[in-house]
Amino acid sequence: MTITTPEATSTATSDRRVVAFSPIPSPRELLAELPLTDRRAEVVARDREEIAAIIAGRDDRMIVVVGPCSVHDPEAALDYARRLAPLAAEYADTLKIVMRVYFEKPRTTVGWKGLINDPGMDETYDVERGLRTARRLLLDVIDLGLPVGCEFLEPTSPQYIADTVAWGAIGARTTESQVHRQLASGLSMPIGFKNGTDGNVQVAIDGAQAAAAPHVFFGVDDAGRGAVVQTSGNEDCHIILRGGTPGPNYDAASVTAAVAALANAGQSPKVMVDCSHANSGKDHERQAVVAVEVANEFAARRAAGEPVRLSGVMLESFIEPGNQPVPSDADGRAALVYGKSVTDKCMGWDASVDVLQALARAAR
Ligand SMILES: O=C[C@H](O)[C@H](O)COP(=O)(O)O
Ligand SMILES: C=C(OP(=O)(O)O)C(=O)O
C-alpha cells in the first residue's frame, strides 16, 4: 500500500490538516474477491421484497431487527447468527427477523467507530482488513439463512457491502444530513430513518421523503473513481422511533402523532420502534418492557380490526447482557468478555429468546 503524505500532494493551502492518504482496493476488486454469487443474490432480493411489503402494509408480519449494537468480534457475531437462524425460521410466519450486523458506529463526540474503521480496536485503522472482514461475515450470515441489517454511515462504504444487505438504517445523528438522504435514494434495500437525538420525528419523515426522490451528487463508482451519481429514488423508506432527549416516544400518543405526521406527508402510516437507545434509557433490561408494550398494542389493534401502525421493532441483543469498555491496550483486548457489546448495552441471549417468543405470540 502506498501511503501518500501531505508533503507529496499539498499546496500552500490544501491538505494542511491531512496527515496521509492510504489507498484501499476498489469496491469492484473486493466484490470479485468475495462475490455475492447468484444464489445469495436471490436470497437478498427476496428478503428485501418481503421487508418492503411489510413496510408498505402488503404483508402483516412484524420486522424484527435484532443483534449486537456493533460487531467487534466476527466469531461471536457468527455464533450469535447461528443461534438466531433457527428462531428466524421458527417464527417466519409472524416475524421477519433481520440480524443487526452493524460495522459503522456514529459517535456523539469521539470513540471507536466500528469494525470497518478500526477492526483491531488498536487504533491502527486497517480499513482494508475491516472491509474484508465485514464482507466475509455478511456472506456467512446470509449463508445461515438470515437477512442482514446495517447502518450506513460513510457515504462510500455501501459500494463494498450493500449488495449483501436486506435492510438499512440512517442513524439519529445523520438523519438530517443531505449526504445520507442522497445515499439512501440510491440504495437498493428498504431504509429506516431514525428520529433525531433531540426527539424530532419530522426530520425522519423528511429524510424518507427526500430519499424517495431522485438525486444527483458526488460519489465514487465501483472502480473507486470520483463520479457523479444519479439515483432514481428509494420508495421503500420508513421511520424509526428511537426516543430522544425529552424521553421515549414508543407510547401510544407518540405513535399516534407520528402516524398522523406520516399520513400528512403521504407516507405509509407505519412506524418501526427501536426498543433501545432513548426508548430504553440505554438500559438493556428495559428493552424487553418496551418490546412487549408495543407488541401488545400491535395485537390489540389487530384483534379490534383497526389498522396496525407498527411495521417492526429493533432490539440490541448479543450473547452476554450489558456492555464492556472498548479496550485501550493489548491486555484489555485479551481480557474482553466473549459475546459482550463494546458499545451500547445489549440484552443477553436468554432474554432475547423470551422477547422474540413474546413478539411472535403477539403477532400471531
Ligand atoms: O448505538 C450506539 C450509540 O448509541 C451511538 O453510536 C452513540 O454512541 P456514543 O454516544 O457512545 O458515542
Ligand atoms: C447508533 C444507533 O442508533 P441511533 O442512531 O438511534 O443513536 C444504532 O442503532 O446503532
TrEMBL record:
- Which major enzyme category is it? transferase
Enzyme Commission number(s): 2.5.1.54
Report the pathway entry: Metabolic intermediate biosynthesis; chorismate biosynthesis; chorismate from D-erythrose 4-phosphate and phosphoenolpyruvate: step 1/7
> Where does the source fall among the domains of life?
Bacteria
Q: From the UniProt record, which GO molecular function terms apply?
A: 3-deoxy-7-phosphoheptulonate synthase activity
SUPFAM superfamilies the record matches: Aldolase
NCBIfam families to which the protein is assigned, alphabetical: aroFGH, PRK12755.1
Q: What does this protein do?
A: Stereospecific condensation of phosphoenolpyruvate (PEP) and D-erythrose-4-phosphate (E4P) giving rise to 3-deoxy-D-arabino-heptulosonate-7-phosphate (DAHP).
Task: Give the protein name, as stated in the record.
Answer: Phospho-2-dehydro-3-deoxyheptonate aldolase
Q: Give the originating organism.
A: Gordonia humi
